[in-house]
Amino acid sequence: MNIVTDIRAWQSIRENCATKKIGFIPTMGYLHAGHASLCERARRENDITVVSIFVNPPQFNQSKDFNLYPRAIEEDIALLTSHRVDYLFLPDEQTMYHDHYEVQVTENALSKELEGAYRPGHFNGVLTIVLKLLNIIQPLHAYFGEKDYQQFMLIKKMVSALFLPLHIIGCETIRAEDGLALSSRNVRLNAMQREKAAHFPKLLHSDLSPAKITEQLQSLGFKVDYIVEQWGRRLGAVWLDEIRLIDNMLLRTIR
Ligand code: PAF
Q1: CA–CA separation, 79 and 25 (whole Å)
Q2: Catalytic: 122?
Q3: 90-142 pLDDT tens trace
Q4: Given 32, 35, 141, 167, which residue is catalytic?
Q5: Domains of the chain, earliest start first
């Protein structure tokens, strides 16, 4: 796997593979089996697979959350190499934000709901970095996990609104054996929290109403931001102490 940190260097590689199909997976690192499955899918559907790792400051609501976000670049490189990813794009903050965060992408409707209501500005940060990365990498396909369903919808909406010449592909959430959706943040759960966390996907998958699910989660000690049904899905966000978990599932898989 080639590691590219410089935009010019990537652009000259890109020119030399102008006719190849490029599959791209943007990430914030601390990669897990969910990312690995995106890499496998990208490899099947493209000639060249590119992954980026960049922990994007403006999408974090608190600098504490940004600082606590887990990082493990050596392990990430090993995982990407074992999944035969061709290129890792690994830029630094100055490269991505030489404009000092002065130019941003804003969506004014969907981005204000659910996650956007609880994490103001979060989706500005996500859309801005994703647009920058798509403009640099210029893939044919870009792959996103459906765990962050609202993010996936917003990226599709941005691509359509700005006429970006690529396809956004959503991939099913990969789960641990007990049902917890894989997430880089799960590593912050201690053993007791990790055991308790499994109640969240179990209840979200149950045939109880959102109000009942909320009640049961609260009685188990979760703080519930929301459990709602929309976009044909049931979506939820909860806190276990300091750690926030989100998840969602297709409604027709429940009833
Ligand atoms: O889902 C993520 O890991 C991030 O939000 C993304 C899409 C890589 C943008 O930083």
Answers
A1: 14
A2: no
A3: 999 999 999 999 999 999 999 999 999 999 999 999 999 999 999 999 999 99
A4: 35
A5: 2-171 (3.40.50.620), 184-248 (3.30.1300.10)
